[in-house]
Every structure is written in structure tokens, then in C-alpha cells.
């Protein structure tokens, strides 16, 4: 499927004076109006899956912040599955906020998922191949070199 040119414009909407909720509303409206949203629909009130999510993931993997990170936190939302896969393909630790866990994360180590990155990028595969970590203390490989994807802030030093 070819990604429409207007998709490139959807994610650079940052008009001055709009708050985060207003920007989200504009993006949701545009995804629905231009039929760029994927299942599930409607997209309102969620991180929507969209046409071009895989291309966006590939572009993210080209960023120097991604290249320099040793550990990447990626949310478990559907449009970020390719990001999770690329994190592991590039030999980085993946930290995934764990759905269905009250607190903590799943940590996926590249040596454990080698050759199974696609499976490990799914929620079921992550539970099968990852290890639960609480977010307290220090975990090997997670003290620096962080890149946060799908969140609202950089995580410079994880105490996990």
C-alpha cells in the first residue's frame, strides 16, 4: 500500500496556541477524514493505528537518538509494533510497559529474541520471551543511552 503524501503532513501539525488535547483532536479528525486510520476505528481517544506506521517506524530507526540508544522504551500500542521489532533487530534492549501488569515492564533482551524479533514485538510474544521488571533498582544495560518512543518525555536514566 502506498502512503499518501498528506500522511507526512499529519504529524507535523503544531499550531501555536493549541494544547495537547486540541492537537490530538486535529490528528484524529484528519486520520478519519482522509481515511488514513486502520482498525480499530474510530480512532478517537486512543493511539490510533494508521496507514504508514511501518514507514514511520523505519524513519524513527534512522534517527541519531535511536542509533545512540542502548535501551528503548516503546508503548504496546499496535502502530508501534514495527518500532518494537526494529529495536530488537538493532540489538537494543526493549522496555515495554506491560499490559495487564499493575506495575512494571517487560524487558526484552536481544540475545534472547535473536531470530524471533517479529514474534517478540507482539504482546503475546513479549510476555513469552521477555522478563518482568519492576521499575525499581538498576537493571544491566539500562543506566544510560535511553530513547523513549511513544511517550511524552526522554528517559535519561532508568532506575529499573
The structure class reads alpha/beta
Provide the spatial order of strands within the biggest beta sheet: 4-3-2-1-5
Oligomer: single chain
Distance between the termini: 40 Å
Biggest β-sheet strands, sense, barrel? 5 strands, mixed
Q: Report the radius of gyration as a whole number of Å.
A: 16 Å
Q: Could you estimate the helical fraction of the residues in percent? A: 25-40%
Strand % is 5-15%
Total domain count:
2
Strands, count: 5
The H-and-E topology, N to C, reads as HHHHEHEEHHHEE
Give a quick summary of the entry.
The protein has about 160 residues and is of the alpha/beta class. The protein has 2 domains: about 5-50, no CATH class; about 55-150, no CATH class. The chain has helices spanning about 5-10, 20-35, 55-60, 65-70, 80-90, 110-115, 115-120, 125-130; strands at about 70-75, 95, 105-110, 130-135, 145-150.
Question: Mind sketching the topology for me?
Answer:
Blueprint (H helix, E strand, L loop, with lengths): L6 H4 L9 H14 L19 H9 L2 H5 L2 E4 L6 H9 L3 E5 L7 E4 L1 H4 L3 H4 L2 H7 L1 E3 L12 E4 L11
Parallel strand pairs: 1-2, 1-5
Antiparallel strand pairs: 2-3, 3-4
Helix pairs in contact: 3-5
